[in-house]
Amino acid sequence: MADLQQFNRDAEARVFDRKERATVQHNIAQYNQAVASGKSQYARLDVARSRAAVLRNRVIENLDRYLIDFETNFTRRGGKVIWAQDAEEAGREILELLKSRNVKSVVKSKSMVTEEIGLNDLLKRESIGSVETDLGEFIQQTAGEAPYHIVTPAMHKSKEDVAQLYHSKFGTDENLSPSKIMQWTRSHIRSEFHKAGAGITGANFLIAETGSVAITENEGNAWMSFAAPDLHIVITGIEKIIPSLADLDIFWPLLATYGTGQKMTVYNSVVNGPAAAGESGPKEMVVVLIDNGRSNLLAQTEQRRALSCIRCGACLNACPVFENVGGHTYDAVYSGPIGSVVMQHLKPEGNYRHLSFATTSCGKCTEVCPVNIDIHQLLQYNRRESVQQGPSSKTESMMWFFWKGAMMKRSNMDKGGAKLKNFMLRQFFRKSWGERRELPVVAQKTFNQMWKERKGIR
Predict the structure, then answer these.
(1) Beta bridge partners of 82
(2) Which of 63, 77, 132, 288 makes the best surface tag, with the fewest CB within 10 Å?
(3) What pLDDT, on a 0 to 100 scale, did the predictor assign at position 167?
């Protein structure tokens, strides 16, 4: 469960971990250069973003209809849809699928929704092997860590860190180069695809018009995960719908540009169901549609736009808070600005309200969002709700009561003089201001007083 005090302790540790910060900042700098190049494919990027935003908002406002269309069209092609209200129900249904088919091991491509429902831990408890086949996810699984970032799970690790990890876990050369790391991983994982009884993937988009699942990736591991085993399980949130196949023309390039700085990712697949007679591929395909708190967010008139997110990770890379405190500090499946918006609605029992205050309100997250979600404004709405729900202490509430009284009237602001104001700042703000920052000092004369003196106004 999330905790404000733990967040502050972890943030302090991460901020002063110079090695990790240098690695993250280097990777974000590389990302920024790539994105600038990726954007060059657009003559009118603003038009593409606006069209994408309109399409996603239309879906979110009519989500029930689009979901029914998807299920109807997908099942018509031989697929099966399972609706799961929460993580527990999703896990139960997935286990039933695997156990009824005597599956002893699965291969997984990158999926944040499987992280959300704790699938790997669940499978481990049931003695079902689960191998992450995405390189970044495999590194994190090997290290016993959660993903650091929703797109680049091992962003905080340098090539030297990974080489040392492989050396300690697998006995490889401690100075393994990045290309050798990839070659070793490829060789290690390849056999897993052929012996796995099921492949589990997420979905970047669900296409209502055709009942298709669109998956985009750079390594080919997702393609192998659903092509080799007999059973393909797609685990995804109910919000991933887009109206038609033609809309991929907008969403795939935007996701590639803002996610990794590419014009298009290397592998892009549209899966319509299990393999037909004479085709290669899985004999069964099941889509598990998970709510898990998304209806809570959908019920929020102002914040529901956050469900339009296409999980590109751009807002994390732009956020000065994320860059400094790191992804693990959030102690949440979805970190950074968009995670700070959605987590308190997806997991209201998890006490994630403090995450909406982990922001400078600079608006950079909104500026870089490819589907024009006004993320910084949604954070303000969350803050308002947090205050209304009363998380503040009596001391803090009293402090702001007097502060408001002073700020609402000019004569009250001028009362007391600088000496009293500086005393009050030291008494009430010193602890919350932090040990490493100096409190601002109130000048002897206000600007109002100096202006009147300069202009000879009495």
Answers:
(1) 288
(2) 77
(3) 97
Residue 343 CA to residue 355 CA, distance in Å, equals: 8
Dihedral (Cα; 89, 217, 306, 200), 10-degree rounding: 0
CB 205, CB 242: distance < 8 Å: yes
Dist. CA 258–CA 290, nearest whole Å? 25
Select 63-292's CATH number: 2.40.50.100, 3.40.50.720, 3.40.50.10420, 3.90.960.10. Answer: 3.40.50.10420
* 242 to 90, 197, 248, 275: CA distances (angstroms): 22, 30, 8, 23
Q: Which two tokens stand for residue 155?
A: 């962003």
CATH of 1-41+307-391, one of 2.60.40, 2.40.30, 2.20.110, 1.10.1060: 1.10.1060
- Chain length of the chain: 458
Q: Pick the closest to residue 235 from 341, 157, 145, 130 (CA basis).
A: 130
How many Å apart are CA 80 and CA 78, to the nearest integer?
7
Per-residue pLDDT band for 431 (boundaries 50, 70, 90) equals confident
Token reading at 203: 């979905």
| Structural tokens at position 34 | 């790539």
Q: Model pTM?
A: 0.89
Sheet with 205-207, strands from edge to edge, namely: 241-242, 205-207, 212-217, 267-271
Mode of pairing for the β-strands spanning 105-108 and 129-132 = parallel
Compute the distance between CA of residue 116 and CA of residue 389 in angstroms, rounded to an integer.
Answer: 25
Q: Which residues pair with 287 in a beta bridge?
A: 81, 234
* One-letter amino acid for residue 103 of the chain: V
**Contacts of residue 433, Cβ cutoff 8 Å, sequence gap at least 6:** 439
The C-alpha angle 398, 400, 406, rounded to 5 degrees, equals 110
Nearest to 97 by CA among 123, 58, 75: 123
- Alpha carbon distance 427, 422 (integer Å): 9
Pairing between β-strand 198-201 and β-strand 231-237 as defined by DSSP bridges = parallel
Contact 21, 321 (CB under 8 A): no
Q: List the domain boundaries for the chain.
A: 1-41+307-391, 63-292, 394-455
Residue 315 has which token pair?
A: 């807002």
Distance CA 185, CA 132 (A): 11
Model confidence pLDDT, tens digit, residues 249-288: 999 999 999 999 999 999 999 999 999 888 888 999 999 9
**Distance (Å) of CA 409 to CA 286, 398, 403, 424:** 63, 18, 11, 18
Distance CA 263, CA 229 (A): 31
